[in-house]
Amino acid sequence: MRTILAATLLIFALSGCRSKSDYYRIPRAEIATLERAALSGDTKSARRLVHHWLIANNDIEQGKKWLLKAAEFGDLEACKDLTGLGVATLPSSCSK
C-alpha cells in the first residue's frame, strides 16, 4: 500500500500539476504591463488580472476592480461575474 501511495505521489509531483492559484498567479514584473493594457481597453489583460487577484490572491476588491474595467470595455461575461459577486451598480456597457 505504501508503495502505491509513494508511486502516486511521485507521478503527481513529476507531472507538473499545479494548484489553481499557482496557475493564475502573474509574476510581479508583468502586472504593470497588464494593468496598462487593461486600462487601455484590453479585456483579455483585465481578465488575467481578475484571475490573478481573485483566484491566486483571494483579493476580492482588486478582482472586482478589474472586472469592472473589463465590463466597462464591453466584456459581457465580466458583467455577469460582477452580478454574481453582488455588485449592484454595473457599468452602462452591461445593459447592451
Helix/sheet category: mainly alpha
Largest beta-sheet details: none
The share of residues in helices is 55-70%
The gyration radius over C-alpha positions equals: 18 Å
How large is the share of residues in beta strands? Answer: under 5%
Give a count of the beta strands, DSSP E runs of length 2 or more: 0
Query: Mean pLDDT, nearest integer?
Result: 84
How would you spell out the order of helices and strands? HHHHHH
The total count of helices amounts to 6
Q: What count of structural domains?
A: 1
Description:
- The chain has six helices and no strands.
- The protein has 96 residues and is mostly helical.
- The chain has one domain.
- α3 packs across α4, α4 packs antiparallel against α5 and α5 packs antiparallel against α6.
